[in-house]
Amino acid sequence: MVNVIATETEHQDLQSGRRPELRGVPSGGPRRACMVSYSVYESDNRVRRYAETLARSGYSVDAIALRRKGQPKQQTVNDIRLFGVQYRIKNERGKFSYLAKIILFFCRSMLRLAWQQIKEPYDIVHVHSVPDFEVFATFVPKLMGAKVILDIHDIVPEFYASKFKVSSGSFAFRSLVLVEKISCWFADHVIVSNHIWEKRLRERSVPQSKLITILNFPDTKVFSRRGRSRHDGRIIMLYPGTLNFHQGLDIAIRAFSYIDQQIPEAEFHIYGSGDQLAVLQKLISDLHLEGRVLLRGSLPIDKMARVIEDADIGIVPKRNSGFGDEAFSTKILEFMALGVPVIVSATTIDRYYFNEQIVRFFCANDDHSLAEAMMQLVKDRRESLALVHRADEFIKGYTWEVNKHLYMDVVKSL
């Protein structure tokens, strides 16, 4: 197995390959839990994974989330009762339109939580951030004895600074740090999504005793190899995820334009939604890449897993400044789980977890470096297969099946 650099105890434990028994459900009958997330539940792998793990271990689980157009307000998905309290269209152009939608979700989720707590009390409410202050929507359940977990997917002050181009010394940034501190204080336990952010939260917002890092591990029940269904001679490069500036998709599209004529059978497929959609559409048009670079929209994770398995090369082109430099890309592990070689920007976070033996790094923010990496993996089939082979060993210690005890131990402790 390939070793990666880390000093935290939890990170070292991940590589041990231990498979402890599933723990967390006290005796005395089924317990009730609720996930709360400002995201579309079916497309949010992290939220679904927690919910379904609790359901499989005996909990009755609800989820309060966003819904797509045409979806019912209430439905059941894999034994999870889902309340879609609001539509989400990622078209925010400014700070206030972004905040207005979040506040509306906060109010609706708080009312739904209060009503459900009165009717059928929850034992655990697991709140997923962004935003951190969504944790206060659990006021009534917490008052009535429910334990509250705050799960910080994206560290909010840095996320906000990246999205709206403000400095770490600004009033807005410092205010968000204060909100982060109060939110972490209110929660009974805090989960954060990578070890770099764990260190920062320890330093400014939350004691180590109530903090744990749990990476966004791929669930092998979803990201399992079923065999490719595509044998058409095309070379498909793939990006699945949000269309935000820090993801660097404009860099990837320009890189693809450099190899467009040299590899006529290649296509670049982009799945996802976000505020950079119009920018990317214009860039594709300006570079005359229509039909070669395709914007496909979002898919539920089950369908996305099949799309990933049919790809030839995974592309993770994040910028290495601010938020993007430290945000962990779970799509890298998903590519590995499904046997797809992956090209990764050399950011701080990805250098922390991975090395050149298991991914093909390129110089962050450099479209020519990315184009070179694309060309190399297309032309050198042996290198591509070697990356996949070594990643196969690495991913054995980085699946949800191996590491779900980290979460269930938190639930048990509460």
Folded structure, characterized:
- The chain has 414 residues and is α/β, with parallel strands linked by helices.
- It is 42% helix and 18% strand.
- The chain contains 16 helices and 14 strands.
- The protein has helices at 9-14, 45-56, 95-119, 139-143, 156-164, 171-186, 195-204, 249-259, 277-286, 301-309, 323-326, 330-337, 348-353, 367-379, 381-395, 400-413, and strands at residues 32-40, 60-67, 74-77, 80-87, 124-129, 147-152, 189-192, 211-213, 235-240, 266-271, 293-297, 313-316, 342-345, 360-362.
- The strands form 2 sheets. It has an 8-stranded mixed beta sheet, sandwiched between helices.
- Helix 2 crosses helix 16 (400-413), helix 8 (249-259) packs parallel to helix 9 (277-286) and helix 8 (249-259) packs across helix 14.
- Residues 1-27 have low confidence and may be disordered.
In terms of topology, how is this protein built?
Elements: H1 9-14, E1 32-40, H2 45-56, E2 60-67, E3 74-77, E4 80-87, H3 95-119, E5 124-129, H4 139-143, E6 147-152, H5 156-164, H6 171-186, E7 189-192, H7 195-204, E8 211-213, E9 235-240, H8 249-259, E10 266-271, H9 277-286, E11 293-297, H10 301-309, E12 313-316, H11 323-326, H12 330-337, E13 342-345, H13 348-353, E14 360-362, H14 367-379, H15 381-395, H16 400-413
Parallel strand pairs: 1-2, 1-5, 2-4, 5-6, 6-7, 7-8, 9-10, 9-12, 10-11, 12-13, 13-14
Antiparallel strand pairs: 3-4
